[in-house]
Amino acid sequence: MALRRITTLFLAAFVAASALAPASSAAVAPPQTGFEKTDGAAWTTHEEELEFLAEVDAMSERLSVSVIGKTKEGRPLHLVKLGNPAPHARATAHGQPTILYVCSQHGNEPAGREACLKLLRDLAFTDDPELLQQLGGNTILFVPSANPDGRAANTRENSSGVDINRDHLNLTTPESRAIAKVVRDWRPEVSIDLHEYGPSIPAFYDDEVLYLWPRNLNADQLVRDMAKHLAHDFIEKDAEDSGYTADEYGQYAAGDQDVHQSAGDGDEGIMRNTMGLRHSLGILVETAVTQDPRNGPDEASDEAAVNRRRVDSHMVVSHAALRFLREEGQAALFTTDRAFMRKLKEGRKRSAPVYFDGADNQEPTTVQDPPPCAYSLTAKQRKQVAKTMRLLGIAGRRSGKRYMVHMGQPAEPLIPLLLDERGLRHSVAAKPQSKC
What does the alpha-carbon distance between residue 345 and residue 347 come to, in Å, rounded to a whole number? Predict the structure, then answer.
């Protein structure tokens, strides 16, 4: 088990309790989150989260917790790994379906974090044969609190005022860098990003579960198609089967008639899009924060009931993603693995256009076809983006006094968006090359 920074008091209490317990006593009950202990009346505090993770880590061999970074205010960023009988090694995970849950990037949207803490605990202690078999053949990863500074302050942004969910291309924050390293090292087939939205707009935009897939046109088409399949046929279906209404994120509708698209574009800095560009099935999930009496009499008068529904709907969606991995994980593994090679070949052949705007629901206006064969960077530009390139898996080489980044590599979809001045979120204005 990887987490060793467990408080002295907790270890002492745990050892003492174990020593005093009679041999015939029942097994120690799995730990509860602060949210569960208050039945939804209060969100789990940062200190409660640390104690909870330490306790789960100490009690279950299936799970390990490691620190993958620290926030500006010094709070740890954790990666939780699950497998059976123990978490799988990275090399093993590369050959099996792997899923990553990123929980509550926006600090004032706490329900996703609560669902992740509950789910990782449930998986660590489950005796369900189907889930045990899945843990034996899949790797399940969590970043259970992706913005602990924002959660402590109840703010959308982190403690530097940056929206982490717009920073997955440029990687200016410790939080986004930690997530990027996990994606680079573990190559998850599926990436689930848990959020909340509100207030709802009655009759037009009030579904309890919203979802969206990668819409950036530079992402591999088969990856986008499979992500859309996951969104519609697993997340939407399971949400509705559980009694929740569900629809596409950002889509206002009157009955079955779509009337207005308010959000959900191809912005390459948003996690669901960046994950698609990195050959993962990136899915955004949002659950509604609005108190809605239609959900039952308790929700009409009890804030804790609203909070429980916010978390429970995330649990349904998170289990839907696990069901997808059980049923179609091998197909997802095949699709995402081949996407690395497809994009490498497209970059070498210059056979795929580069889209600097647009989405799968919006016609692009700035397109280069054929694309550059490479980008040339000055020494200063290379220094500016070297760390970001490493985390995104972008390779380059020195060429005289400049630095060349060729498009013929698996990271081809990311390169122009990061290095070309036409990119919405470019970090440097490198020089496109038409001859290599």
Answer: 5
Region class of 279: left (phi > 0), else alpha (psi between -120 and 50), else beta: left
pLDDT digits (tens, 9 = 90+) for 329-382: 999 999 999 999 999 999 999 999 999 999 999 999 999 999 999 999 999 999
* Confidence class for position 18, pLDDT limits 50, 70, 90: very low
Give the ranges where 111-201 is alpha helix by DSSP (H).
111-125, 129-137, 148-153, 174-186
Three-state DSSP state, 260: strand
Q: How many residues does the chain have?
A: 436
Name the burial class of residue 369, with classes exposed (0-12), middle (13-18) and buried (19+) by CB atoms within 10 angstroms of its CB.
exposed
Backbone angles phi, psi at 76, to 5 degrees: -75, 145
Domain boundaries, the chain: 30-338, 372-433
The torsion of the CA quartet 14, 15, 16, 17, rounded to 10 degrees, works out to 50
- The DSSP line for 137-159 is H-EEEEES-S-HHHHHHT-SS-T
Classify residue 277 by burial, with Cβ atoms within 10 Å: 0-12, 13-18, 19+. buried
Question: Is the distance from CB of 266 to CB of 216 less than 8 angstroms?
Answer: yes
Q: How far is CA 430 from CA 41, 381, 386, 404, in A?
A: 52, 7, 13, 10
Q: State which H helix or E strand residue 37 sits in.
A: helix 34-37
- For residue 295, the tally of other CB atoms under 10 A from its CB is 19
Distance CA(404)–CA(396), nearest Å, equals: 6
Q: Which CA distances in Å does 376 have to 218, 297, 369?
A: 21, 63, 18
Contact 87, 171 (CB under 8 A): no
Kindly tell me if the per-residue pLDDT of 19 is higher than 90. Answer: no
Assess contact for 320 and 238: CB atoms under 8 A: yes
CA distance linking residue 103 with residue 98, whole number of Å = 16
Ramachandran angles phi, psi of 158, nearest 5°: -80, -175
Residue 201 is given by DSSP the state B
**CATH code at 30-338:** 3.40.630.10
Return the SS3 of 221: helix
Parallel, antiparallel or unpaired: strands 209-212 and 246-248: parallel
